[in-house]
């Protein structure tokens, strides 16, 4: 549907100057042009309005005139549209004549309409899109499928017709005439020229507003239903009085059975005539009652008969489309597909409601009243009539031809062709009105029109008038660039011809136009994308020749090659294409031409063998000449030739497997058989051949020297010499093809293998080439045993050749090939073969052999020596070997296996230390000490990793990956005592902070704790010493004595560190203060545990805390004395002294914080019954005073909120010097 606005899909139909919609049989149409489709189409398509309302008949127009463009860039002329109308006219006229009947009578002439618009009140104009009063008679925009809106009847036209006090319109009937019911009970009857024919009303009867309206089929009678329940029937020829009158009845009359009909006050909501009768009508009211009325006369006396009828709703499929009105849109749905086909934005609130006045008395709510607009929408002969608040509008659905002509009207013939194509392929949006339902019939109709449309458009685009008219003139005199127009014409016509599958017009007629006018380049460039996309496969050779030449002239051989690949080879000029490919070295395209156009599969081989020979000659010249000589050839010169020469291998792979190159599409079977036979015969021919066969052929040579000696099987040898691996891979693929299953062909698998064996025996053959040949033969013999049969001696030689090659890069390929060969051949001299396999590193074969013979020690060594195995695979396999060997030896590991493992400990440790520990502990735990002896010669870290796996807690493995799984929760029970203590010692060196955690993890009887204490003290792990003395020995007094000793030692070290250079000082201070912190944590933890134990007395607990505090305070005192003496001696103005003082101050702060933390722990962990704080403080002060080496510092008080004691608690800080 055409839209009112460009972006919408629906609009309303454009006005015509006059149109007679009379349906009366035998009545003459008032329109001189009724039934003349060409005239009506001209009215639709005309760019001008004539003042007298009539259109020119077109008699004066020259039917043979040129085809003029009418777009935005051209002056509006009619010849092009006339030709388009000729294209779309005849069939379209017959189908749409009835629908056009309305359009031929809908409008007054332009001058009258303009007078109407000049007198209309602006406020009365509705703002809806359907109220557009544009006087244009142009058809709808191409983007929509309803014509623009048309005013049929307006308020001004009613007033100007002399009908006073008619009231406001309420309902509408439109079929042949336009009838409007009003709120005063009157009925206005108009024809489609907006002439008021009559006003039907009954001056004597007060019947209320008209709420339902119907016009008889012969347009002579009009029936009206009213809000009061009355029904009137008027003869249009006698509108002053009703011909029949049906008053409402009362409930009492109905109850008594004397009368039937609508009750008084029941609003008539629907009314209609029965068939073609004038006096038989049916009606319904808002109560849901329906009646049949027979309004006849007997002896000139009205004899009305009213029957109540039972309404049943039957399915109706008479119409294929239905109109739906929503609050914002008008929509058309297809009944069969249940799809929306057209829609337009429309304000439903602008329509009239017949009961809107009833909202004033409250009988009907406003929302219910304002949405009852069914009587404001009518459809007649495909036209939509809408009753607005100030006017009646009409619109129509456009047919497919209308939509195409809408593009023609705007001069856009390219879009017209494209829209026709979319109808042809079935993806056009919107409705398909006017087209046959059947797909074939529809395509026949649309296809013919599309072809004629393309012909007319092409003639117009290239007509002389088109080339010389004012559309090519610009103000600056430079002319208008029409390139885009001519480019679009090619693209649009190409798409249309693809849809039609008929290219005669494209390549004959259209191309001739472009070629004649010297713009064939435009045609060719626009055609090429269709060829590359595979949409057009066949292009006439004369056009293809020019397209290839175009790229050649532009020096773009890559584009020419791309085109040759994608086009049907029969379209090519063979000589032109081959010459182009050879000049520019386009070998992919050259191969395509030989194989697909000429069905010649040997010539590409000859061409590429020539390139290989050139490369070999280049390489020989380069090797013999010095870099400064003129014969020296650079790599840049050789590289392009090398790349092209390598194309012979994929080419052979494709051809010998029945595929085209390079697209790899299947070759037709008969052609593929001939191609394979020709290529096999040529490549494996025993001597040099002449090609092409017959007169003019040349000998195809392979020797590096000119006139050199040609060997046997020259072409197979050259392919092997250039790249043996690539050539044999090609043969691998070819061997899988079923063609070689038929041994009646000249070349078979056995023949090719024998030729390769003969080449293999040639002196001077490079070792790499010989290896690849051996691999190829060894792998294919077991795959095709029925086709390839060789003597054992030959197979033995191949096996020996695979094992004797020392190239590590091919070891895996050689081993895999040997495995293939051994599956079909069992060699003699097994000991020699095994020795060769060991030297070659064929460990996979050796493992299979030793396992089969139950040789466990050699099997064990094959896993250790195989460099391709991961460590996890090695240890899993070794574990399985040891288990299997024990099982076959009554559960005991055989001595020779134990010896092999013992001798291989070093190798196992090289692979993975932790996995070795797991293996030894699981299978041979008695070897732990021997492993440690081996590890003595390694780093201490390896010993620590070994012991950590056996003894360490799981926490140490949280950050480690790829460690073997431990199926136990504690340390290994197989570890000797010395190794256990060594683990603690190594742990102290590696991670001192983890020592206490590891000691907690180990069982009580796992270690000699005195040795542990000595080891920890030796490695300065002071917190571990204190923890071991108390937690493992319950001797807190000893632990605190050690604490005191450690404090003295560390305080002296701190004092000495303060006198060292700044860099060393900071590191040493951090170390000693960290040790002090760890000692405090261990000692405080022990004292807290001791205080909470119920077995100790008050004095004992107090003594422990006193001892710890004295030790800490003594440490603070010693360091502070040292700091005081230094500060007194040095000058404070020295920057070095200032830095020294800052370091000393920070050190003192750290030491005092340790004392404070101890007091905090004491108060939070002890109860008032366990420790007497006043006595503890007094004893602490007395002990300090008695020492005579300290001064009591000011006391800093703070409350201990969670400790219940009558005394106020204080934290003591002891120091000296400058504190």
Automatic annotation (TrEMBL):
InterPro entries documented for this protein: TPR_VPS8_2, Vps41/Vps8, Vps8_central_dom, WD40/YVTN_repeat-like_dom_sf, WD40_repeat_dom_sf
* Location of the Vacuolar protein sorting-associated protein 8 central domain: 522-735
Q: This chain belongs to which protein, by name?
A: Uncharacterized protein
Task: Cite the record's Basic residues compositional bias ranges.
Answer: 1198-1210
The family this protein is said to belong to? Belongs to the VPS8 family.
| GO BP annotations, alphabetical order | endosomal vesicle fusion; protein targeting to vacuole
VPS8-like TPR-like repeats domain residues are 1091-1188
Positions with biased composition (Acidic residues): 17-30
Location of the region described as Disordered in the Swiss-Prot/TrEMBL record = 1-78, 113-147, 1198-1219
Which superkingdom?
Eukaryota
Residue ranges under compositional bias (Basic and acidic residues)? 31-57, 113-126
User: Which GO cellular component term is one of those annotated?
Assistant: HOPS complex
Composition-biased stretches, type Polar residues, lie in 133-144
Q: Which SUPFAM superfamilies match?
A: WD40 repeat-like
Q: Which Pfam families match?
A: Beta-prop_VPS8, TPR_Vps8, TPR_VPS8_2
């Amino acid at each position: 549907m055409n839209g009112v606005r460009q972006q919408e899909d629906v609009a309303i139909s454009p006005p015509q100057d006059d149109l007679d919609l009379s349906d009366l049989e035998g009545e003459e149409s008032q329109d001189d042009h009724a039934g003349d489709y060409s005239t009506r189409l001209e009215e639709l398509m005309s760019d001008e309005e004539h003042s007298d309302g009539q259109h020119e008949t077109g008699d004066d127009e020259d039917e043979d005139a040129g085809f003029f463009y009418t777009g935005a860039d051209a002056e509006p002329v009619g010849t092009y549209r006339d030709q388009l109308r000729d294209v779309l006219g005849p069939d379209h006229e017959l189908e749409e004549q009835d629908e056009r009947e309305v359009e031929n009578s809908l409008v007054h002439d332009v001058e009258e309409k303009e007078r109407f618009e000049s007198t209309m009140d602006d406020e009365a104009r509705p703002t809806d899109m359907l109220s557009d009063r544009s006087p244009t008679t142009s058809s709808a925009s191409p983007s929509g499928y309803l014509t623009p809106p048309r005013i049929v009847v307006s308020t001004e036209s009613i007033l100007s017709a002399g009908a006073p006090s008619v009231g406001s319109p309420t309902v509408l009937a439109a079929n042949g005439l336009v009838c409007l019911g009003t709120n005063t009970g009157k009925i206005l009857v108009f024809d489609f020229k907006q002439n008021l024919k009559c006003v039907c009303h009954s001056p004597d009867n007060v019947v209320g507003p008209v709420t339902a309206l119907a016009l008889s089929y012969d347009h002579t009678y009009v029936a009206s239903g009213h809000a009061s329940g009355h029904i009137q029937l008027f003869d249009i020829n006698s509108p002053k009085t009703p011909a029949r009158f049906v008053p409402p009845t009362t409930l009492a009359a109905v109850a008594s059975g004397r009368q039937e009909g609508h009750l008084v006050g029941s609003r008539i909501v629907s009314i209609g005539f029965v068939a073609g009768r004038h006096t038989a009508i049916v009606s319904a009211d808002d109560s849901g009652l329906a009646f049949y009325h027979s309004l006849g006369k007997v002896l000139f006396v009205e004899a009305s008969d009213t029957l109540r009828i039972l309404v049943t709703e039957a399915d109706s499929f008479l119409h294929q489309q239905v109109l739906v009105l929503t609050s914002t849109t008008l929509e058309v749905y297809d009944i069969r597909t249940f799809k929306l086909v057209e829609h337009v934005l429309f304000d439903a609130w602008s329509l009239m409601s017949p009961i809107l006045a009833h909202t004033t008395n409250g009988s009907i709510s406003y929302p219910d009243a304002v949405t009852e607009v069914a009587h404001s929408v009518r459809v007649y002969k495909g036209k939509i009539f809408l009753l607005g608040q100030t006017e009646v509008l009409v619109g129509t659905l456009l047919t497919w031809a209308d939509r195409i002509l809408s593009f023609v009207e705007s001069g856009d013939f390219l879009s017209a062709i494209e829209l026709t194509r979319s109808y042809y392929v079935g993806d056009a949006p919107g409705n398909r009105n006017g087209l046959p339902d059947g797909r074939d019939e529809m395509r026949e109709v649309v296809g013919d029109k599309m072809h004629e449309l393309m012909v007319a458009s092409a003639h117009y685009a290239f007509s002389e008038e088109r080339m010389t008219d004012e559309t090519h003139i610009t103000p600056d005199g430079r002319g208008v660039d029409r390139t885009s127009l001519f480019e679009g014409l090619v693209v649009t016509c190409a798409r249309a011809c693809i849809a039609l599958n008929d290219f005669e017009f494209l390549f004959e007629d259209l191309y001739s136009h472009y070629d004649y006018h010297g713009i064939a380049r435009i045609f060719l460039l626009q055609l090429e994308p269709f060829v590359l996309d595979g949409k057009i496969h066949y292009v006439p050779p004369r056009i293809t020749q020019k397209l290839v030449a175009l790229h050649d002239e532009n020096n773009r051989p890559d584009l020419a090659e791309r085109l040759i690949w994608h086009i049907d080879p029969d379209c090519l000029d063979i000589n032109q294409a081959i010459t182009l490919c050879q000049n520019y070295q386009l070998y992919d395209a050259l191969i395509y031409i030989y194989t697909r156009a000429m069905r010649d599969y040997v010539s590409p081989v000859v061409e590429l063998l020539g390139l290989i020979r050139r490369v070999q000659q280049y390489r020989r010249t380069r090797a013999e000449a010095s870099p400064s000589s003129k014969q020296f050839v650079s790599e840049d010169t050789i590289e392009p030739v090398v790349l092209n020469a390598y194309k012979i291998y994929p080419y052979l792979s494709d051809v010998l497997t029945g595929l085209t190159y390079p697209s790899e599409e299947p070759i037709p079977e008969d052609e593929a058989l001939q191609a394979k036979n020709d290529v096999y015969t040529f490549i494996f021919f025993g001597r040099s051949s002449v090609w092409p066969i017959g007169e003019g052929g040349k000998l195809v040579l392979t020797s590096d020297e000119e006139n050199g000696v040609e060997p046997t099987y020259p072409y197979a040898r050259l392919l092997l010499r250039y790249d043996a691996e690539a050539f044999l891979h090609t043969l691998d693929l070819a061997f899988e093809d079923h063609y070689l299953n038929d041994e009646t062909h000249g070349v078979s698998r056995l023949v090719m293998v024998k030729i390769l064996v003969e080449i293999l025996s040639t002196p001077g053959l490079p070792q790499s080439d010989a290896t690849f040949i051996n691999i190829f033969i060894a792998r294919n013999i077991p795959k095709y045993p029925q086709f390839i049969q060789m003597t054992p001696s030959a197979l033995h030689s191949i096996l020996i050749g695979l094992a004797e090659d020392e190239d590590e890069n091919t070891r895996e390929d050689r081993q895999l090939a040997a495995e293939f060969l051994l599956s079909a051949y069992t060699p003699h001299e097994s000991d020699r073969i095994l020795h060769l396999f060991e030297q070659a590193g064929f460990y996979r074969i050796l493992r299979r052999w030793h396992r089969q013979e139950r040789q466990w020690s050699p099997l064990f060594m094959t896993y250790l020596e195989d460099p391709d195995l991961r460590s996890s695979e090695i240890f899993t396999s070794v574990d399985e070997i040891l288990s299997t060997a024990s099982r076959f030896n009554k559960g005991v590991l055989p001595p020779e296996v134990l010896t092999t493992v013992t001798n291989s400990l070093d190798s196992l440790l090289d692979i993975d230390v932790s996995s070795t520990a797991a293996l030894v502990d699981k299978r041979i735990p008695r070897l732990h000490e021997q492993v440690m002896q081996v590890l003595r010669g390694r780093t201490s870290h390896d010993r620590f990793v070994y012991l950590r796996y056996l003894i360490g807690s799981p926490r140490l493995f949280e950050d480690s990956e790829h460690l073997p799984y431990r199926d136990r929760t504690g340390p290994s029970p197989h570890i000797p005592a010395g190794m256990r203590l060594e683990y603690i010692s190594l742990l102290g060196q590696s991670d001192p902070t983890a020592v206490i955690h590891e000691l907690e993890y180990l069982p009580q009887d796992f270690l000699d704790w005195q040795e542990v204490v000595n080891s920890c003290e030796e490695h300065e792990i002071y917190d571990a010493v204190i923890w071991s003395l108390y937690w493992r020995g319950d001797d807190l007094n000893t632990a605190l004595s050690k604490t005191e000793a450690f404090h003295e030692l560390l305080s002296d070290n701190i004092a000495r560190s303060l006198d060292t250079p700044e860099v060393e000082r900071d590191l040493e201070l951090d170390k000693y203060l960290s040790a002090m912190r760890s000692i405090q944590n261990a000692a405080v933890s022990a004292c807290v545990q001791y205080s909470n134990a119920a077995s100790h007395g008050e004095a004992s607990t107090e003594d422990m805390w006193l001892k710890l505090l004295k030790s800490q305070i003594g440490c603070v005192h010693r360091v502070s004395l040292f700091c005081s003496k230094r500060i007194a001696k040095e000058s404070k103005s020295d920057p070095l002294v200032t830095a020294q003082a800052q370091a000393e101050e920070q050190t003192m702060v750290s030491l005092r914080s340790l004392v404070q933390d101890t007091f905090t722990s004491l108060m939070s962990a002890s109860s008032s019954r366990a420790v007497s704080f006043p006595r503890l403080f007094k004893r602490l002060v007395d002990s300090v005073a008695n020492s005579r080496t300290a001064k009591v510092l000011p006391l800093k008080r703070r409350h201990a909120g969670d400790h219940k004691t009558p005394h106020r608690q204080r934290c003591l800080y002891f120091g000296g010097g400058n504190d």
